[in-house]
Amino acid sequence: MDTCQKLSIGQNVELLKVISHPVRIRILEELAKGVKCVSDFEDLFKLKQPNISQHLSIPRQSGVVDYYVDERLRCYFLVDPLVPDLLALLGKDYHETLPRPACCPVTKRGTYPGERRR
Known about the structure:
By secondary structure, the chain is an alpha+beta fold.
């Protein structure tokens, strides 16, 4: 994924699809800390190698992660600089909801500020 320019909406959607699984989020969180091989993930997540490899193939094919070979090990690392920011945002605690608009149907107050079309 070319990250030298702003991502298009389509590229953003694809990136969200890449991280849209709990195992892949956990994998990417670990890769944000540094290089890991599949056996590291097996130890961390108590999952089997084929399952981990399947989850790694999706971000690898999309260019979010890459790997190098060290003898018999494939060592994975994060490539896309947007991923740590996304993970930080997903991990953030929000204690309040946004305020309701003045024209909210729930509060039955206010008037719609835009043009009404019927």
